[in-house]
Amino acid sequence: MQIEQLQGSIVAIVTPFKDNGEIDLEAFDELVEFHIENDTDGIVVCGTTGETPTLSDAEDAQMIERCVQKVNGRVPVIAGTGSNSTADCIKYSKKAVELGVDALLIVAPYYNKPSHRGIYKHFSQVAKNVDAPIILYNVPGRTGSTIDPATAIELANNHKNIIAIKEAGGDMSVFAELLANRPKGFKIYSGDDFLSFSANCMGADGCISVIANLIPADFHKMMKESIDGDYKAARKLFFKYRALMELMFLESNPLPVKTALALMGRVREVFRAPLCEMEDENREQLKIELKKLKLL
Q1: Domain 3-230: assigned CATH number
Q2: Which distant-in-sequence residues (6+ apart) come within 8 Å of 100 by Cβ?
Q3: 54 annotated to a ligand binding site
Q4: Phi, psi (5° rounding) for residue 163?
Q5: Mean pLDDT value of segment 5-10
Q6: Euclidean distance between CA atoms 37 and 77, whole angstroms
Q7: Given phi > 0 = left and psi -120 to 50 = alpha, else beta, which region is 240?
Q8: Is position 215 annotated in a ligand binding site?
Q9: Which among 70, 166, 221, 258 is annotated as catalytic?
Q10: I want to staple 187 with a disulfide (CB 3.0 to 4.6 A). Which of 44, 164, 214, 230 is the partner?
Q11: Among candidate residues 265, 271, 223, the one with its CA nearest the CA of residue 251
């Protein structure tokens, strides 16, 4: 599949750790196979859900290379290469391209809070300097900055390699504006599992998902049905997993999803500081819902 045609369930995959805190590459390989076997449409490696802020540059490269090799062309691989430094973003992006990824997921510059003009210039410079498809990533709750719809559309119109946006601002009116004004071929992915069904009903192209780590087959099915217009079937799956989607953000991502994967026996319940184990009552609430859904 060409990355420009990618739709459906794109998992933001976790980074498993061993008890000593090192990356567990064998567990990661098993997760990749789990997704391929269960119809996940694409994999994002080294995103927020992959605890990238605590990975070294060498570990980032190791994870990207491992994912590309393990996937072996079966689905698109997208690497998170964002930074609040434009120069570093270009450096990380070029390295990911060298390692063979199909596209880049680049978050809005965080902490330094650039203006809309600054955000435009940041992505424009990256697009001019990196020969690869780019997916913009708007998540103001984490970055403190916003890629507004007008800026996203301007970037898409002016740079052919800016092919999509992951929209995680939590506002359906933003999806509406993007969908109404996007250029031909520009993809719009939800970055919020809970809103993905509704966004697809308006014409979006799927979701870069957290919950797909746990239910890849059913989330793929929900995305396909909602994109294809089988809203009744998709709605049934949405309501089945609605509570679990909400629990994925009971504490900061990726704490709930990685805890759930550990309860399911797929990874160890190990995080890198400053992240740590969930509060006991929250963990128990998550466990109850997983049992209810027969995921344990």
Answers
A1: 3.20.20.70
A2: 65, 68, 77
A3: no
A4: -105, -10
A5: 97
A6: 16
A7: alpha
A8: no
A9: 166
A10: 164
A11: 271
pTM: 0.97
pLDDT number for residue 2: 84
pLDDT digits (tens, 9 = 90+) for 135-153: 999 999 999 999 999 999 9
Instruction: Examine the residue annotation and report whether 166 is marked as an active-site residue of this protein.
Output: yes
Catalytic residue among 70, 92, 120, 137, which? 137
Residues with Cβ within 8 Å of residue 261, at least 6 apart in sequence: 14, 213, 214, 267
What percent of the chain stands above pLDDT 90? 99
Residue 107's H or E segment, with its range, is: strand 103-107
Kindly report the CA angle at 228 between 107 and 163, in degrees rounded to 5?
Answer: 30
Give CA–CA dist 128/116, Å, rounded: 18
Closest by Cα among 44, 84, 81, 91 to 60:
81
Which residues, 6+ apart, have CB-to-CB distance to 5 below 8 Å? none
Residue 151's Cβ-side half-sphere holds a number of Cα atoms within 13 Å equal to 20
User: Where are the domains positioned within the chain?
Assistant: 3-230
Single-letter code of the amino acid located at 41:
D
- Told to judge if 287 belongs to the known catalytic residues of this protein, a careful annotator would answer no
- Angle of helix 25-37 relative to helix 57-71, nearest 10 degrees, comes to 40
